Amino acid sequence: MTDRPIDLVALDIAGTSVDEGGAVYHALRSAVESHTGVPVPDDHFDRWKGAGKREAIAALLGATANDTTEIDAVERDFTARLLDAYRAVPPTPIPGIVDTFALLREQGIKVVLQTGYSRTITGPLIDQVGWRVGREIDAVITSDSVRASRPAPYLIFHAMEEAAVTDVAKVLVAGDTPNDLRAGANAGVRFIAGVLTGAYVANTLRREPHTHILTSAAAIPEALGLGKPARRT
């Protein structure tokens, strides 16, 4: 298909491609508050949803980049809490997303997952949902592979690099948080889709840069006129 509108879909993982019940935010908040003994105000916490988790920890602690010992300790605690949560209640693919991956890849569109998680969390998570690079997806980009996570554009640029896509006008970014959408805007991509399967409602996401607000990332092919994914066994 030579006239496809995009060459790459760069998708967030938790809340966008995978349903993990919000375990990430419970683990993050509890790790920080257990360390400081002080509740994190909701408005401050919400600003860091969708961001790289190490950056979020540093901000929530009020720590500087030099406070690596404190940040490291809380990051280890957060990682352990989240992996425990995922073992107790395994995450599952968003309904229809695997069919969407298949349709996109059949039409020559690369599917790259990009996340605020580290590789330590992302590897087991992807294994739990049964996805493999080269089969369901084309690549996975984690926050510890870039200098700054969302809302910086580097996760998206790295996804483009992995997919050998050079034109931001041929990229769609999708995510469930304001920081996902801001990263898409900062990258200058053509399509930015907010999805309603995660942390925020439509009215909140509509205040951010976007071209689409979708009930789910599984609706991306229809939104772009690529057809409806067939249900596969």
UniProtKB/TrEMBL annotation:
What keywords would UniProt list here? Hydrolase
One example GO MF annotation: phosphoglycolate phosphatase activity
Q: Which residues form a coiled coil?
A: none
Output a single Gene Ontology CC term carried by this record: cytosol
GO BP: any one term = DNA repair
Matching entries from Pfam families are given as:
Hydrolase
**Looking at the keywords, is Hydrolase present?**
yes
Q: Per its UniProt record, what InterPro entries does this chain match?
A: HAD-like_hydrolase_sf, HAD-like_sf, HAD_sf, PGP-like_dom2, PhnX-like
Q: Which Gene3D superfamilies match?
A: HAD superfamily/HAD-like, Putative phosphatase, domain 2
Name of this chain's protein: HAD family hydrolase
Q: Which organism is it from?
A: Mycolicibacterium agri
